[in-house]
Write a structure and sequence with these properties.
Terpenoid_cyclase/PrenylTrfase, transmembrane helix, membrane, Transcobalamin-like_C, about 10% strand, alpha+beta, transmembrane, Glycosyltransferase, Ferric Hydroxamate Uptake Protein, Chain A, domain 1
């Protein structure tokens, strides 16, 4: 079985396996042979065949991959098509059936399904029909995937490959990268953008200059182990995206010093996540992760296609269109990305939706709206639609939300009244003074009457009293006060809600509400300098909501990571699960401890199982 895979997909392994070890700059580095990459590819295929109980790749394609069309296996189908497996008829039929019975609301998802049909050699009109309604409709990713389809020779009335390219170039950030939001480039998004632009590198100086800047961005952020991290967390997928991108540019990461750090190249960066069974984990020492495995798979295939002089990963061999994609010259041999380092033919790599590390700094990709509610109640200047979406800035609560918030307030107030007590500080100070007096008497009786002993005792007692006065030790009952914080200099009002719709009904935990609403949209006054973390803390204290965080707003750069809310923690529902926050429907690039709020802002804390990629579907319903 393995020999068949390598014969069809990796025919030139023996030629490249004999390549000599070439030192790069001053770093000691012996590059991987293509045969070693073949083994990584074959290990993934063997693992998947064993996992699904298939005796051959053809059986896998006709069985599990076809059954998972539209839900879980699309990137395996596409990658296998680029390995020479042209009979994807079962997958094509299943995907068309899926699209016929499901309303796909996500523009990016529609484009990815169109790519799947392209890979299957389909002549379905769906591929061209969805372009006008999808390109640019869901941020930068919908421009990127739209360009992939146009690179495959398809057309639509409203957009051309050139116009889409121009739009993507206009989104490049000052540091040379691209991102879903914010002012700083993101590794995965930048790599995916490069993959789409790579076939058009020679079209204009604007494209080549932008791509060169992006390559520098990616090079500068590579870690010493050869890999990458996303949102502060090292992971396999980010490195896989970069390998796919540089392979698309004809850059061989084994020889180019820009992508070798401390003797480690991109292949080393991905291989460190390989498990003994051939699959890949999302994080070091983690378990099998499907997303990490498929992205490692197609990144290695993208690398192999580059070494063989084949077309880019997402300029598809099996596409039905007879028109050659503009700017996508196969085997052009141009040295793309800049003049540094060795490079080969120009390839363009594909990518799946980003699977980054568990949320760090609480940032992610999706735009979410408030959940559904019935009735319409408006306070302040905002209005609440029947679907729960805020239509203007201000404070607006549905009747159901208002009822739920009132219940939370009542519960917290009852808790406070039941356990209220006087401040502990006077009693603590009396204890310190009394203890000091007793110790002084003992010293006097023992004859150790040196004035230094009494001075030291006095200093120690004063220090203890200072600690008592400067700290605020509160019981849980006192912390969860049931009363909002009094603010003397109010500059405005924000609303905040906390939801876990993505896991509602998936657990019998008492901490997961049936409707997914932990805190309905609730108004909070803000003072100058108040951050998202400040309001979350206030909500926790007011409504008795448990919050667990790492770091603090007083630490360097205000780095706070929210690991748990309402006893629902990161990783509870998979390697990619955790809490994220949105402000006004957008995920900021700043940490919640440093995002300063303005009057009218709308904060949403949302639980995601797929680093944000599952939020669109939940909140668009």
């Amino acid at each position: 079985m393995r020999s068949k895979i390598l014969t069809v997909c990796l025919s030139s392994a023996l030629i490249f396996a004999a390549a000599p070890c070439i030192p790069v700059m001053q770093e000691a580095h012996c590059e991987h042979t293509v045969g070693e990459v073949d083994d990584l590819i074959g290990g993934i295929v063997d693992f998947k065949l064993g996992q699904v109980g298939a005796g051959s790749i053809e059986e896998w394609l006709a069985g599990d991959i076809a059954a998972g069309a539209g839900t879980s296996t699309d990137w395996y189908a596409l990658t296998l098509s680029q390995c020479g497996y042209t009979d994807l008829s079962a997958y094509e039929s299943s995907l068309e059936s899926y699209l016929g019975s499901n309303n796909v609301t996500s523009a990016t998802s529609r484009e990815k399904y169109a790519l799947g049909l392209c890979a299957a050699g389909s002549r379905s009109s769906y591929i061209s029909d969805i372009l006008d309604s999808s390109i640019g409709q869901q941020g930068v990713m919908s421009w990127i995937y739209g360009l992939h389809i146009l690179n495959n020779g398809y057309t639509c009335p409203s957009y051309t490959a050139e116009s889409v390219t121009d739009s993507i170039l206009s989104m490049q950030l000052g540091d040379g990268g691209w991102a879903l939001w914010g002012e700083y480039g993101d590794i995965d998004v930048t790599a995916m953008t490069v993959q789409a632009l790579a076939p058009r590198y020679d079209d204009s100086s604007q494209v080549s200059e932008a791509v060169d800047r992006a390559v520098d961005f990616l090079s500068e952020r590579q870690k010493e182990d050869g890999g990458y991290e996303s949102f502060g967390n090292p992971n396999a997928e980010s490195t896989a995206q970069v390998l796919t991108a540089v392979s698309a540019l004809g850059i061989d990461c084994r020889y180019d010093d820009r992508f070798i750090k401390n003797g480690n190249d991109l292949i080393d960066g991905i291989a460190q996540y390989r498990l003994p069974d051939g699959s890949f984990s999302h994080i070091r020492d983690g378990g099998f992760n499907e997303t990490a495995t498929v992205q490692a798979y197609y990144s290695f295939v993208a690398f192999r296609r580059m070494t063989e002089g084949k077309s880019p990963l997402l300029v598809l061999d099996n596409r039905a269109s007879a028109q050659s994609p503009q700017g996508g010259n196969e085997g052009s041999g141009s040295n793309k990305g800049s003049s540094q380092g060795d490079s080969s033919t120009a390839n363009e790599g594909g990518s799946s939706t980003k699977a980054a590390a568990p949320v760090s700094g609480n940032t992610t990709t999706a735009t979410a709206n408030a959940g559904k509610s019935t009735g319409t109640t408006s306070t302040g200047t905002g209005t609440q639609t029947s679907t729960g979406r805020l239509t203007s800035s201000g404070t607006s609560l549905s009747s159901a939300a208002a009822s739920q918030t009132k219940t939370a307030v009542t519960s917290a107030q009852e808790l406070t009244e039941k356990h209220s007590r006087r401040s502990y500080k006077p009693f603590a100070i009396l204890i310190v003074v009394g203890a000091a007096a007793v110790i002084a008497l003992i010293i006097f009786i023992m004859g150790k009457r040196s004035y230094k002993n009494f001075i030291f005792l006095g200093i120690a007692a004063a220090a203890a009293i200072a600690v008592i006065l400067l700290t605020d030790i509160r019981s849980p009952e006192e912390y969860y006060s049931g009363e909002k914080k009094h603010k003397d200099t109010v500059i405005g009002t924000v609303t905040m809600e906390i939801r876990c719709d993505t896991i509602a009904g998936k657990s019998d935990s008492e901490h997961i509400p049936e409707d997914g609403v932990i805190l309905a949209p609730t108004a909070f006054d803000i003072e100058s300098g108040d951050t998202v973390f400040d309001i979350l803390t206030e909500a926790a204290q007011t409504y008795g909501i448990q919050v667990e965080n790492k770091g603090s707003a007083g630490s360097s750069h205000g780095m706070v990571y929210i690991s748990g809310i309402n006893y629902i923690y990161e990783f509870d529902f998979g390697d990619l699960s955790g809490w994220v926050y949105h402000v006004n429907g957008i995920t900021p690039s700043r940490n919640c401890g440093e995002y300063v709020l303005s009057d009218g802002d709308r904060i949403e804390w949302l639980y995601t199982c797929e680093v944000g990629h599952d939020l669109n579907e939940v909140y668009e319903e």
